[in-house]
Design a protein that fits this description.
Elements lengths: L4 E7 L6 H9 L6 H8 L11 E5 L9 E4 L11 E5 L21 E6 L6 H5 L12 E5 L6 H10 L5 E5 L1 H13 L4 H14 L2 H12 L6 H61 L6 H19 L2 H6 L4 H12 L2 H30 L10 H12 L8 H13 L1 H36 L12 H57 L1 H36 L1
Parallel strand pairs: 1-4, 1-5, 2-3, 5-6, 6-7
Antiparallel strand pairs: 2-4
Helix pairs in contact: 1-5, 5-6, 8-12, 8-17, 9-11, 9-16, 11-15, 12-14, 12-17, 13-17, 14-16, 15-16
């Protein structure tokens, strides 16, 4: 028996009308009742899980899952054809290969009912060879296609797919009318009108056109051309499936990029606001204002320590100044920094949770599912230095406050030297005055200074006053030196606070989301390189197949 072209008919569900379509194609209008019943009851004894092969011939040629019928439809084409009718998916539920024979078909015919089948999901089904050059989609409809249905098909169907709108039920009704009274002219007319309106003949015309495209001098030439085209179509369909997978990967990559970009945007927004929230703006600098308030508080103490008052507190100078510094040194700023530390901790938990949720959102089958990145984030969160505590931001204030103890100790020693200088000046003046009077009284004899008593007393008083004045001047100079140290320490405080805040934000608050974004960015770049390479290979193969 000559080889035949394979026409595989697949109904998307039990309501698709595939059974009715095959019946309308094979049934002869003037055939005896037994022949018609053989076609209509062809599934009665067939294994519905395996499908049915319908070919031209006598009943003696039937085998397992094979039905031989003498239908002129099977002989009307340039070469013999046979129909492989597949059962609907409902009868093979759970089998992922229910439409597998479509890939070995010379002409695959997919039949669907638009009211029971979602067209978008149907075209997304990779188990159907939509890119086959001879593929035909038969949409069962009792009327012409609506504009909405046409738009859906144009948006989803591949451009190479042939789409036909057929009403098999009307064709079967027309055949039934003719069977009731085949000798009546009106029955023949009603049959002809009904069969034409069913548009079933369009299926035959399309199949004939597809086969005529491979017309050759011999049947073997047509079949060989069909099989060659089928092989190319299989490769093309595989490439189409690959391109769809690449598109799915690109979609996933874009989704990951958007997620990482959204997380990074939150981080950048936080970094843009946190410095002004914590340290103030140029119009209202928190650190400078706090230092000014501290200066006012300490200035009262320093102004109180005049040259004369300092004499009675010389041993308590360091303690007095240190106590004043402790009371006044940026206490308001320290309280604000402790409050901002709580905000930093809340933001840290929020962004870390968002980063962790993003990394854990990918299924295990995804390329972006990375246990290594998940473990890295978990390790960062478990480190002792990860938590933001109240002393995190205030450490520079304490450090700068401690730095002031050194100039305060120097000030204390200056006070002691001042007291010693004043005491020495007073004792020296008294000694000169006493020496003058002693000489006047003849007590010193030849050891006298040679001065009158009044002159010696004046010189002694002048020496004492000059010494005291000089010592007080040195004390005031020591205090000015201490204020210069204060200014230097204050200028370094703002610099230290900015550096500490930036370090805390980078190494503690944002370390988890930054690491997550960095890891995802590397995976995205690697995936994009792989996708670009695959697209180039697919394009090369597609160009080869079209030659």
């Amino acid at each position: 028996m000559a080889r035949a072209a394979r026409i595989v008919v697949y109904g998307t569900d039990q309501y698709s009308g595939a059974n009715e379509l095959v019946t309308a194609l094979l049934e002869e209008p003037f055939a005896p009742h037994s022949a018609k019943a053989r076609v209509r009851d062809r599934w009665k004894n067939a294994d519905e899980s395996a499908g049915l092969r319908v070919r031209y011939g006598s009943t003696t040629q039937d085998g397992e899952a094979t039905l031989s019928v003498r239908s002129s439809w099977l002989q009307q084409f340039p070469i013999p054809v046979e129909i492989h009718e597949l059962p609907p998916p409902s009868t093979t539920e759970g089998s992922p290969s229910h439409a597998k024979p479509l890939f070995s078909a010379d002409i695959p015919v997919i039949v669907c009912n638009p009211f029971t089948t979602n067209l978008s999901e149907l075209f997304a089904d990779s188990s159907i060879p939509w890119t086959h050059s001879n593929a035909i989609l038969v949409v069962t409809s009792s009327s012409a296609a609506s504009s909405a249905l046409l738009q859906r098909l144009q948006a989803s169907a591949p451009k190479s797919l042939t789409v036909l709108f057929v009403d098999p039920e009307r064709a079967l009704s027309a055949l039934s009318v003719l069977s009731t009274d085949p000798g009546s002219a009106s029955s023949v007319q009603r049959y002809q009108d009904g069969f034409v309106e069913s548009r079933v003949s369009e299926v035959s015309a399309t199949i004939s056109q597809n086969l005529a495209a491979f017309k050759d001098s011999t049947e073997g030439g047509i079949l060989n051309a069909l099989r060659t085209q089928n092989a190319l179509d299989l490769v093309s369909d595989s490439l189409y499936a690959c391109r769809r997978m690449v598109m799915a990967v690109e979609y996933e990559t874009d989704r990951v990029r958007k997620g990482a970009s959204s997380l990074r945007s939150q981080m950048e927004e936080f970094k843009a606001k946190i410095r002004s929230d914590v340290l103030g703006t140029e119009e209202k600098p928190e650190v400078k204002e706090s230092l000014e308030r501290a200066r006012v508080g300490v200035k009262g103490t320093m102004d109180f320590l005049t040259g004369w008052r300092m004499l009675w507190k010389v041993d308590d100078i360091a303690d007095t100044v240190n106590a004043s510094v402790d009371r006044s040194w940026c206490r308001g700023l320290e309280d604000k920094l402790i409050f901002q530390t709580g905000r930093l901790s809340v933001t840290q938990n929020f962004l870390a949770g968002a980063a962790n949720a993003l990394v854990l959102s990918f299924p295990k089958t995804s390329t972006f599912h990375s246990p290594v990145l998940q473990n890295t984030l978990a390790q960062l969160r478990s480190q002792p230095t990860y938590a933001v505590n109240p002393a995190t931001l205030t450490q520079p204030i304490h450090a700068r406050r401690i730095q002031l103890t050194y100039p305060t100790s120097t000030l204390h020693r200056s006070a002691q030297r001042t007291v010693l200088g004043m005491s020495g000046s007073v004792l020296g003046g008294i000694s000169i005055a006493w020496a003058g009077w002693a000489e006047h009284l003849g007590i010193l004899g030849s050891l006298g200074l040679g001065l009158e008593a009044e002159t010696a007393a004046g010189l002694g008083m002048f020496s004492a006053v000059a010494g005291i004045w000089y010592s007080i001047g040195r004390w005031e100079k020591a205090k000015r030196r201490w204020w210069r140290d204060w200014d230097r320490v204050g200028e370094g405080l703002e610099r230290d606070l900015r550096s500490t805040l930036d370090r805390v934000v980078a190494n503690q608050v944002l370390v988890v989301p930054t690491t997550a974004c960095s890891g995802l960015r590397d995976m995205i770049a690697k995936r994009e390189d792989e996708v670009a390479q695959l697209k180039d290979e697919i394009t090369t193969l597609e160009q080869y197949c079209t030659k």
